[in-house]
Amino acid sequence: MMAGDLMHEEEVSNVKTHEMQADLYCIQCREETPHVIQYINEEISTITCRRCSRVVDIDIDIMNELYDEVYQRITTKPARLSKESREDLSHFFFSLPSRVISKPYRLFRDANDTQKAIRRYRK
Q1: Does the pLDDT value for residue 65 go beyond 70?
Q2: Which of 28, 13, 7 is nearest to 73 (CA)?
Q3: How far is CA 57 from CA 24, 26, 61, 104, 118, in A?
Q4: What is the pLDDT of residues 32-42, one digit of tens each?
Q5: 8: helix, strand or coil
């Protein structure tokens, strides 16, 4: 198996999706052919043969992936804020009011993006 370059990466809410190309053995083509491997976070979600278009879907618990991401964000927030304030205290205090004001919009946008991701991966 030869992994290719990273083809596409997108962050939907905090669920990261990306695709890679690799030469894999296709049981339908009966030879090694180029495949597209799609990931959700670090989990493989689909593998598609580029020659015969055979798709192997791998069931991923998208809600579990989302919960893990949210949990990770919540538990690391204090450390991230501390690090940010230590690195540049004046910038931290200067940016805080605008961040507090924009937070409801960012949460709303995050919720919409998350719903789209869940719909896309719940087939």
Answers
A1: yes
A2: 13
A3: 15, 14, 12, 36, 16
A4: 999 999 988 78
A5: strand
